[in-house]
Amino acid sequence: MIKIALPKGRIADKTLQIFEKFIGESLCFEDRKLILTKEKFEFMLVRNQDVPVYVERGAADIGVVGLDVLEEQQSSLVRLLDLGFGKCKIAIGSPNHYTLDFSNPNLKIATKMVNITKSFFAKKAISVEIIKLYGSIELAPLVGMADAIVDLVETGDTMRQNNLKIDETIMEISAYLVANPNSFYAQKLEILEIQKFFKTQIQS
Ligand code: PRP
User: Fold this and answer.
1) Hey, what domains does the chain have and what are their CATH numbers?
2) How far apart are the CA of 155 and the centre of ligand 1, in A?
3) Residue ranges of the ATP phosphoribosyltransferase catalytic domain (predicted)?
4) Best of 87, 111, 138, 151 to mutate for ligand 1, by most ligand atoms within 8 A of CB?
5) How far is CA 168 from CA 67, 122, 142, 148, 151, in A?
6) pLDDT tens, residue by residue, 173-195
7) pLDDT tens-digit profile of 32-55?
8) Which atom of ligand 1 is nearest to the CA of 88?
């Protein structure tokens, strides 16, 4: 049995479409069900940020998760494949008419990605105050709580509609197929077969 953790939403749908071709059967979660078993596969639906937890603890053997989550959680999972979908980026943004000045010693940055933000500024030897938020990050500079944000940008609509600009891109993001290191060792052939199939599917 191979257990697979998927992040609820579009990425799970895309991944399931590929697994449908791999298994040769249709895969559809019933209503509010969180587990779907088909042949020797067990799929589970979890929150994006929780995928590494399930895979690290071995509740799932493999999973699909955004690079942002892997980097933020400094997760030590085996990165099997960059799936090339779920694309977005992590960027620093600030109000359109504001000039972001990295030499300002009192910069306040709002973000939900504290570790990525810390390491980005530490590498530049810039000291910043980080304000941890859980969502609607774009609001913080609009109400004067932060000078800038570090956040995910997909279409750019949220930033645009809130009069924010991108000052710098920190990282390009996409979804990754990952594995628990022990599962990868114990079920190497099966997992490599999945990886190989996904590779052919994302190239075509
Ligand atoms: C994410 C991100 C941005 C938005 C970017 O938020 O934090 O706010 O999507 O997308 P866009 O560039 O296409 O506008 P999410 O929708 O996950 O909600 P959140 O604010 O609750 O984190």
Assistant:
1) 2-86+174-203 (3.40.190.10), 88-172 (3.40.190.10)
2) 9
3) 47-194
4) 151
5) 18, 15, 19, 11, 11
6) 999 999 999 999 999 999 999 99
7) 999 999 999 999 999 999 999 999
8) 12
